[in-house]
Amino acid sequence: MQFSSIVGQGEIKQRLINTVKENRVSHAQLFLGPEGSGALALAIAYAQYVSCLDKSEYDSCGECSSCRKYQKLVHPDLHFSYPFFAKHKDDTALNFIEQWRDAIIKNPYLSLDLWRGYLDAENKQANINIAECHQIIKKLSFKPFESDYKILILWLPEYLDKTGNALLKIIEEPQPNTLFLLVAQNQDQILNTILSRTQLIKVPCLNDTIIKQHLMDEHHQTEHAAAEIAFLSDGNLTEALAMLNNDENSYHDYFIKWLRMCFSNKGLEIADFVDVLAKLGRENQKNFMRYGISYIRECCMLLAGAGNLVHLPAKELDTAQKMISVMTLPMAEAVSALLEKAHYHVERNANPKILFLDVSLQIVKILKFKTIPQGTHYIPS
């Protein structure tokens, strides 16, 4: 992957190139950027530039033997580590390397949700286990095979958990010419012991103008459609590209159906629907909660008279306008608070049937019986 194939981030690209030109390549670097910012793509392009045999002032050549191997992600001195859904305690990232290469080559703006689609995730949560940490140490104990550097790109170190402490020594005192490139989205979830041993490179989210131009140039969108998608994606190119293939969010019908059952207090239907939600898998459950929170936030803006700030697709906007006729602002805020708590508990492995049944009953109290929990009342200014 070359820098020229990455959308935007011109300042970051130049900074990375300068570290190579000025021989200031830090052995451990953390690319910190939100989903869809291109942090992973930048790390791969940087690794390719470092290893390129005929690099230019602005990019790798793309034609030398090293670059050709990088384009297929098969260079012997390039290693990857990433979250996966282990079926056995001895599973490592190497068990899924073919799926990983396929996923990155097809879409370098990979998200964990897209990565799940390449694996048999079932109801498991992604993590980087201790077996993978030992595998990293083993791979990096050898000298580079072809290039000047042996490079490890570790995607989402947030999923290392405490097992990541096994890597501290090799990160702090690596073999000569070893380069660690960590790619993260949430600094607060990274072990402080690892964070303190890396040089931080902050990758900002893309602005609407850059995403809009990319959609128009590369995906042949009209200016109006590109502008709308760019606004809704909120700087997330991964989300923007997903919107190209989806006229509406796949969770919309589920969420509205759920709220209607709760408003009508249909107990048996709610119980059946809870079973459906429980089988979605934890990552899909979290996404479902995220969608619900975002949707209710848009309803709150409609209720507050800020409809000009709402940019929902036509069908979802029509549904939201109907919903606010039976929902007050305090009720919407109370539902939003419930969904945020539910998302928190899903992340922490709560029993999904118990959790979603409890949330459903709480929403029934709010929507049907207009009973708002204390502490969530809206106080108008």
Describe this structure in words.
The chain is an alpha/beta fold and 381 residues long. The chain has helices spanning 10-21, 39-51, 65-71, 97-106, 112-116, 130-139, 168-172, 192-195, 208-219, 223-233, 237-244, 252-264, 267-278, 282-303, 314-323, 329-347, 352-367, and strands spanning 28-32, 78-81, 150-155, 178-184, 199-202. Helix 7 links the parallel strand 3 and strand 4. Helix 9 (208-219) packs across helix 10 (223-233) and helix 16 (329-347) packs antiparallel against helix 17 (352-367). The longest helix has 22 residues, at 282-303. It is globular, with a radius of gyration of 23 Å. The protein starts with 9 loop residues before the first helix and ends in a 14-residue tail after the last helix. The mean pLDDT is 86.
Topology:
Elements: H1 10-21, E1 28-32, H2 39-51, H3 65-71, E2 78-81, H4 97-106, H5 112-116, H6 130-139, E3 150-155, H7 168-172, E4 178-184, H8 192-195, E5 199-202, H9 208-219, H10 223-233, H11 237-244, H12 252-264, H13 267-278, H14 282-303, H15 314-323, H16 329-347, H17 352-367
Parallel strand pairs: 1-4, 1-5, 2-3, 3-4
Helix pairs in contact: 1-2, 9-10, 10-11, 12-17, 13-17, 14-16, 16-17
